[in-house]
Each structure stands twice: as structure tokens, then as C-alpha cells.
Amino acid sequence: MDVLDLTRLQFAVVTIYHYFFVPLSISLAGIAAGLQIAWLRTKQERFLTLTKLTGKLLIITFAVGVVTGLVQEFQFGMGWSAFARFYGDVFGPTLAIEGMLAFFLEATFLALWYFGWDRLPRPAHLATILVVSAGTLLSAFIILAGNSFMQNPVAYEMDPATGRAHLTSFSDLLLNKVNLAAFPHTVAGAVMVGGALILAIGVWRELDVYPRLGAWLTLIGGGLTALTGDHLGKVITEVQPMKMAAAEALYSTTTGAPFSVFAVGDSFRVDVPYLLSILAKGSPGATVQGIDDLQAQYAAQYGPGSYVPMIPVAFWSFRLMIGVGMFAALIAAVYLWTSRRGHTPHRLLLRWLPLIPLLPTAANSIGWIFTETARQPWLAFGLTRVADGVSPGLTSAEVIASLAGFTVVYGVLAVVWLRLVRHVCSASPAGSEPRPLVSTY
Predict the structure, then answer these.
(1) Does some domain include residue 433?
(2) I want to staple 5 with a disulfide (CB 3.0 to 4.6 A). Which of 1, 16, 212, 246 is the partner?
(3) Are residues 325 and 302 in the same domain?
């Protein structure tokens, strides 16, 4: 592997690891707020118990997420300084605002919520966790705007003197059509991850309310992920037709294009007629551009070179993303059906349910792998190639050393997070109230 491949691998490792905790922070903040509202309205002690348990999980996850997020932002200076130098005026505001939200807004109000149980009036105390929840959503929206610029560059102009891109409108950057489609899809995926976690914990610790609440969130999040993903797919087809063609390995432009549920080369395929045209453009008779025609178009437009991403990665990551996510939603639906009216699900289902968070987590990660690898060779689509963004003078030894260091640190963080979560969830007998964060009202 050369420096470019190693640097891409390093950024992928750092980003995917960080994203393990982002959806959890988003969903756990909302779940904690919802449970606290339920407790204030009903005065039922079980909702207070679960509010505090969810808050503990949020604090642990938020702390690890902040640490890993810092490393991710440093990557722009460490491995991609040429990209940062060229697009710093566009990316700078999104990274700065996201950093301030994470460190000042979310962290401050999360601390107020943690220490304010006996010190703040109930409405003010509830407001702190609502601010945290809103802050996680706003933080995600702003950072997704930066990624959406890479998918569909907008709101910039080139400075002829410096050759750098300058931001022309921050609002236009935020309202990028890709961002408006990607944000609800990301939040829906986060709901799945958070729901799966509390479903697993609820089944493991036999906690009241938690298992079915988690199952409903996983199922509803799965449905919303499918709906928002359908819209996002159509937007991506509009701005990056090569990505959708790569997702189906569609080499020839086709009207009424089918979608392959499964394929082994050209020898065996299971196709759903017209489905790709529906997914890409919303009509069974729509024409979907093929890889060969797009390659010829891009070569004429951008110059000689290959503009085709890694087809096997795009093809299988797209299907795994969908399949793994649907499987998680199916398991949640089975649990809801078998546990209705107080029935006890089959012991085999209960035995494996604690592992269900792995499914939506994997679906989220695979989705990002598809999103980023199927954009290749572009760093910012149509503007800058990946090879042009690597830090000049960077050596393979430097990348390998830093990647090894990050891997060790992240391994330690993973163990710490798992042990803390396990400790928090098992600190009190099954079905009883976890120890209060500070005290009760």
C-alpha cells in the first residue's frame, strides 16, 4: 500500500470508530429526554429509574465520542493538509461550530442535567436534557453539511489569486440538497442503534419498559431509515449518477433497470424488475445511466483517467447496508410480537438479543463505507481528486506509526466503554432501580 492508500485507511479507521458513538449519543439524548417527560407526567418511579440509567449510558458514550471526534478532526491536518488548505474556508465554519456545540453546548448542559437533580426546578432541569438532545441533532446537521459539500459542492467560489475555494453562503451550504436528504436518514439510523442498545440491555437486565421501548424504536427507526434512504438515493442519483450505477454494477445505460438482490458475476442473478429505476428516479420506466457511458462522459469533461469506483465494494456494501438494517428491524418486530400481552419470547431469541446492537451499528458503518468509497476518485465531487488532498511530504512510516497508535488507543477506549456500560447496567439487581446519579427530586 502506498501513502495514499494508507492515509485513506487511517481516515476510514478513525471515522468509522468515531461513528460507533455518534448515533448512540443522538438517540440516547432523545430517549433520556422522552423518559424524563414520561416520569414528570405520570410520576411513575420506573420512568425515573430508566431516565437515570439512560443518562449514565449517554454520559459514557458522549465522553468517548468527544475524544474520538477530536482525533477525526486532527486528521485533516495530519493526513489531508492539502485538502484542508484548499477548502479550509468552506470546512472551517462547520468544524468550528460543531466543536463549539459538542464542547460547550452539549457538554455544559449535560453536566447541568447530571448535577442538577436536586438543585434545579423540574422544568429547568428537563430543559437541560432537551437542549442536549437538540444540540446533538444540530451538531449532526452541521457536520453533515461539510460531508455533503464533498458529495455535491455548493456555496463556494474559486479565488483566482490563491486558487482556494471560498464560502459564499453558509445558509446555502447548510441547505445543500444532499444534506437535507442525508440528515433525516442519519437520524433514523441513530434511532435504530439507540433502540437496539436499550432493547439488548432491557432483555439482559429484565428491566420494565426498556425492552419493548427499544424494540419499537428499532422497528420505527428501520422504517424511517428505509423511507429516508429512498429519498437520499434519488438525490444521490441526481448529483452522483456514477454512485448509483456502481451500487448495481450497471455498465450499460438501461431503461426500466432491474435491481439485483444477489449476484455471482454474470452466471447467477436474482433480479427484481424495474426496481433500480424506481430507487434511482422514482419511475419503473426511468433510464439509469451506466458505468461505461458515465466514464466516457467524465473523461471528456474532466480529462483522462478512471472515474469508476471499486465496483465490488459499492455493490456489496449497498446490499449489506440494506440487508443488515432490515434484519435488525425484523428481529425487533419478532420480539414485539412474541412479547405482546405479557408473553415471554422463546429463550433462543432472548439469548441472542443482547447482540442486536451490532446489527444497526454495522448497517450504519457499511452505509458510510458505501457513501465514501463509491464517490471515488473524487474528494470533492467534480473538483478535487483524493490523490490531490494528501499532505505533501507524508511518508508511509509516519502513517503506519500513527495508525498503530490510534488502533491501540481505540482498542483501550472500546474496552473502557464496554466495561463502564456493563458496570452501569449491572450495578443493581435485575428489575430494580439503578443507583441515582446524585439524588432524586
Answers:
(1) no
(2) 1
(3) no
Distance between CA atoms of residues 434 and 425, nearest Å: 8
pTM of the predicted model, to two decimals?
Answer: 0.94
> Cβ(244)–Cβ(187) under 8 Å?
no
**250 and 377, same domain (yes or no):** no
What confidence tens digit (pLDDT) does each residue in 281-311 have? 999 999 999 999 999 999 999 999 999 999 9
Task: Report how many domains make up the chain.
Answer: 2
Asked if 377 and 305 touch (Cβ cutoff 8 Å), the reply is yes
- The grid cell for 396 is 508511509
In a domain, 60, yes or no: yes
The string of DSSP letters for 335-391 reads: HHHHTGGGPPPPHHHHHHGGGTTHHHHHHHHHHHHHHHHTTTTEEETTTEEGGGSSP
Please tell me whether residues 304 and 328 are part of one structural domain.
no
Residue 203 CB burial class (10 angstroms; 0-12, 13-18, ≥19): buried
- Max Cα-Cα span within the chain: 71
Q: Are residues 248 and 366 in the same domain?
A: no
CB contact set of 276 (below 8 Å; sequence gap of 6+): 244, 248, 250, 254, 257, 258, 259, 288
Residue 8 has which C-alpha cell?
Answer: 485513506
- Look up the domain containing 390 and give its range: 3-240+309-425
Rounded to a whole number of angstroms, the distance between the first and last alpha carbons of the chain is 59
